[in-house]
Amino acid sequence: MDAGWLGTERRWTVSSVQSALEIVVSGIGFAWLPKADIFDELNSGKLKKLDLVSGGDRNFYLYAIFGKGERTGSATRLLVDLLQAECNVCPKPSVSSGI
Questions:
Q1: Across the chain, how many H-helices and E-strands are there?
Q2: Do residues 24 and 31 make contact, with C-beta atoms less than 8 angstroms apart?
Q3: Residue 20 — φ and ψ, nearest 5°?
Q4: 5-15, pLDDT tens digit by residue?
Q5: Cα separation of 12 and 28, whole Å?
Q6: Backbone angles phi, psi at 89, to 5 degrees
Q7: Which pLDDT tens digit goes with each residue over 41-67?
Q8: For tag attachment on the chain, is the N or C end more exposed, with fewer CB atoms within 10 Å?
């Protein structure tokens, strides 16, 4: 996603969430990280959430692509059901009027 900062020279690009987490915990910068991956660091006080006026939370689309009917095994159906159940627990992003 082009959020305006991708063109800047003052950013780090890493290949994994773990690498980004290590950089952030070391105090070098900030990042948008999945809550599930930083739970322990938030609870221990190593990290804290920045209260931003906008852009503090990011949402994304999750797609599951799988065969239909007999092509889909029981493990795949269970995985899709579990993912859908977890996604339905999350609050839906509010629609902004752009003001």
A1: 3, 0
A2: yes
A3: -65, -40
A4: 556 677 788 89
A5: 10
A6: -75, -30
A7: 999 999 988 887 877 777 777 777 877
A8: C
